[in-house]
Amino acid sequence: MTGRIYVPKDSTALSLGADEVASAIAAAGTGHAVVRTGTRGMLWLEPLVEVETPAGRVGYGPMNEADVPGVLAAIAADGAHPLCIGLVEEHRYLKSQQRLTFARVGIVDPASVADYVAHGGYEGLKSALVMAPLDVVKTVTASGLRGRGGAAFPTGIKWQTVHDQVAPQKYVTCNADEGDSGTFADRMLMEGDPLTLVEGMTIAGIAVGATQGYIYCRVEYPEAIAALRTAIAAAYAAGYLGADVCGSGRHFDLEVRVGAGAYVCGEETSMLQSLEGKRGEVRVRPPLPAIEGLFGRPTIVNNVISLASVPVILAKGAEHYKNYGVGRSMGTLPLQLAGNLKHGGLVERAFGVTLRELLYDYGGGSASGRPLKAVQVGGPLGAYVPVQHFDTPIDYEAFAAVGALVGHGGIVAFDDTADMAKLARYAFEFCAIESCGKCTPCRIGSTRGANVIDSLLAGDRPGEQRRLLDDLCETMIQGSLCGLGGMTPFPVQSALKHFPDDFAPRRRH
Amino acid sequence: MSSVEAHEQGAVQSAIDRFGQQPGPLLVVLHAVQDALGYIPPSAIAPIAAALNLSRAEVHGVVTFYHYFRTHPPGRHVVQVCRAEACQARGGATLEAHAKARLGIDFHETTADGATTLEAVYCLGNCATGPAIRVDGRLHSGVTPARFDALVTGQESK
């Protein structure tokens, strides 16, 4: 029997043995062609092997090497096997999702331009090439897309500013320094469908008149870096990048640059410094990067998911995208379910889905079987959200109203064994390790904050320590140059507010 | 000149020749040196500074700013343990304490026999199936203390 068998080579799948499974399938000599893809995002089922059938792709997972002979025998017979999950796209975790940005992830061969085009790829670029550049910008503005990196600034407005500048050189830069714990959407997209990002950046370049793009990817993502470089080479070879994009006469070059383990380089001005080969120290704004960015030139700085959402907006129109979502949070957001959840993974849904649906309907509750205590949304600088706020919809404004942030859509769940004082202390410790050192509130406040929590827990004049801590948080929020120092107090303050008992003086261990 | 020094200088010169002409080349050059040698030797600073028209202080400042760059040779195996929240939510703190005790070293140290360097890392992007570690470039999920011993002991004997 022949046909295709799909085995993910996403990092998480690899960490669970996907390469060994793929080799065992190839070695079995059944005549199936093994195609390596990204992941569907049902990460507890990885490695999830999919078999092409007349009805669609049927999944088997989680697989390991030892399961391969049995599963191959099942495929040759009627397909039934204890690991069979049925038609993958009918699985309830996937079926209820609204995948716009992640439409192809887990389905296509990330290295193949032909496969990308066969699944609707480059439709957005095709539309953009016959539009006036300003109309491309206007389409992105009309879609309501806001920066998916966390700051939620309207993407089209940023593009407009760069478009309006007159300069001998402009740049499009992609912030792929996805350092937030609990987030992996950028990585999943770059590994599973990198050409969507390449296409989004090409459209951005054409819209604002930039001929050079850089993707700044963190060094912790070697598989993503390799997938991007392969995809970029394939796009050049097929004429989608270079001096004459698709014969349009437009020029766009693209290159991957690799970070070096500095969380602060996810801050846009710090990232630009790093791209210039400097220490990743935050720059004072103004001037905005859109006016004086990389090498002093007008520069778009967008997150991976923002740029990867552009092709579908151009292909299907601003209205189509905008019709998803609620209020001023339009379109979809890829949410990442992480930490102590039974069914961790990626869920792309329109804004408006609640935390409770995500944690229980998708996430299946805690992996440990214990009750959930809190979730941290939006990375290490995001607030801890207690159970009583689990009905909050994913919506930038609704989250702000409960003192939290949506950020990049990472959701880290903790069960009732979590020690919120330790987590608050960790927030300061992390800030101290990652501070670029340029501004005092962040550089010194972070270390001081960890010390004050130590004193508080040791019972050393707790009332006084508590006042000091509140004052310190306020100073960092008001006085820091960027979000690292300015937001580190958010997890601390939310832990103090919602879990005061965890901060009671305790006996030394 | 020792053979080690000659090897280092060769790698540095090759990195400069290949990448020195790019816009904003310093990180690219430093990556190439570390990829080739496993570290950035102190002897790399002066030639890179001269080739890129920077001061030695600027190059040194960049090398020391970034956690990923190291200035000493690592052990034969490098073990990165994720310390971030998503792994903490799945037992990361226990794993971290175990790793240090098992190897008898702290983060950023190498065992006395030169076998293993232990590094802290803040998120490997493997947040749904933690605790996560990376051993010599290979990522692992669901690492319990027992699994850590199996993975790292397996490496030590090689």
Could you describe the 3D structure shown?
Chain A has four domains: 4-95, Glutaredoxin (3-Layer(aba) Sandwich), CATH 3.40.30.10; 113-322, NADH-ubiquinone oxidoreductase 51kDa subunit (Rossmann fold); 325-415, Ubiquitin-like (UB roll) (Roll), CATH 3.10.20.600; 420-503, de novo design (two linked rop proteins). Helices cover 41% and strands 16% of the residues of chain A. The model of chain A has no long low-confidence stretch (mean pLDDT 97). Chain A has 509 residues and is of the alpha/beta class. Chain A is globular, with a radius of gyration of 23 Å. Chain B has 158 residues and is α+β, with helices and mostly antiparallel strands. Chain B folds into two domains: 3-65; 77-156, Glutaredoxin (3-Layer(aba) Sandwich), CATH 3.40.30. Helices cover 47% and strands 13% of the residues of chain B. A five-stranded mixed beta sheet of chain B has the order 2-3-1-4-5, with helices on one face. In chain B, strand 4 and strand 5 form a beta hairpin. In chain B, helix 1 packs antiparallel against helix 2 (26-37) and helix 3 (45-52) crosses helix 4 (56-65). The longest helix of chain B has 17 residues, at 3-19. Classes of the chains: A alpha/beta (509), B alpha+beta (158). Chains A and B meet through helix 1, strand 12, strand 16 and helix 17 of A and helix 2, helix 4, helix 5 and strand 5 of B.
N-to-C span of chain A: 63 Å
Count the helices of chain A. How many? Answer: 21
CATH class of the largest domain in chain B: Alpha Beta
Radius of gyration of chain A: 23 Å
The third-level CATH topology of the largest domain in chain B is: Glutaredoxin
Task: Trace the largest sheet of chain B across and list its strands.
Answer: 2-3-1-4-5
Structural class of chain A: alpha/beta
- Output the CATH homologous superfamily of the largest domain in chain B: Glutaredoxin
Q: Segments of chain A where pLDDT lies below 50 for 5+ residues?
A: none
Total strand segments of chain A: 16
